[in-house]
Amino acid sequence: MDLTIEHVGLASANPEGLREWFCRVLEAKVVFADGKTPPAFLMQVGPGPLVEIYASDLRLEQTGHNRLAGWRHLALRVPQIEAARDLLLQRGVQFEGEIKPAGGGGRVLFFKDPEGNLWHLVERSSDSVVTPLKPT
């Protein structure tokens, strides 16, 4: 079987607002917009899988809790975590806590989008089980 993760779905109380945040903060590109009300979008964030943003029917306060069962966060791989943090700080992102060690080697730093979805930056070290990115 030849499998690749193509996209991850992200239900949103405000799909248009979250699309704007993706573009402004993460420099994402809209790959597809369905033109409906409420809208749905396929977003490209870097070279990885797409993120599908679509309207939600229900919101739980626990969404941003990293130990809630189910998919809990999206990780953005970066070559230098401090440089990425500083750029996102300029774009209004508020980080939760300090940079911490990452499972598998490297470092992570958590933040939430405007709807409380959990994200983190991850920088892989040379001794990581995951191949590190080359600094840009």
Question: Can you put this structure into words, describing what you see?
Answer:
The protein has 2 domains: 1-56, Signal recognition particle alu RNA binding heterodimer, srp9/1 (2-Layer Sandwich), CATH 3.30.720; 72-136, Roll (2,3-Dihydroxybiphenyl 1,2-Dioxygenase, domain 1), CATH 3.10.180.10. 16% of the residues lie in helices and 33% in strands. The chain has helices at residues 15-26, 81-90; strands at 7-12, 29-33, 41-44, 50-55, 73-77, 95-101, 107-112, 118-123. The strands form 2 sheets. A 4-stranded mixed β-sheet has the order 1-4-3-2, covered by helices on one side. Strand 2 (29-33) and strand 3 (41-44) form a beta hairpin. The chain is globular and about 45 Å long. The termini are far apart.
Give a brief description.
This protein has two helices and eight strands.
Q: Count of helices?
A: 2
What do the pLDDT scores average to? 92
Q: What's the CATH H-level superfamily name of the largest domain?
A: 2,3-Dihydroxybiphenyl 1,2-Dioxygenase, domain 1
Helix content range of the residues, please? 10-25%
Helix and strand content put the structural class at alpha/beta
The end-to-end span amounts to: 34 Å
Which CATH-level-2 architecture of the largest domain?
Answer: Roll
Proportion of residues in extended strands:
25-35%
Sequence of secondary-structure elements: EHEEEEHEEE
Give the overall shape.
globular
The gyration radius over C-alpha positions equals 15 Å
CATH topology of the largest domain: 2,3-Dihydroxybiphenyl 1,2-Dioxygenase, domain 1
> Unreliable runs, pLDDT <50, ≥5 residues?
none
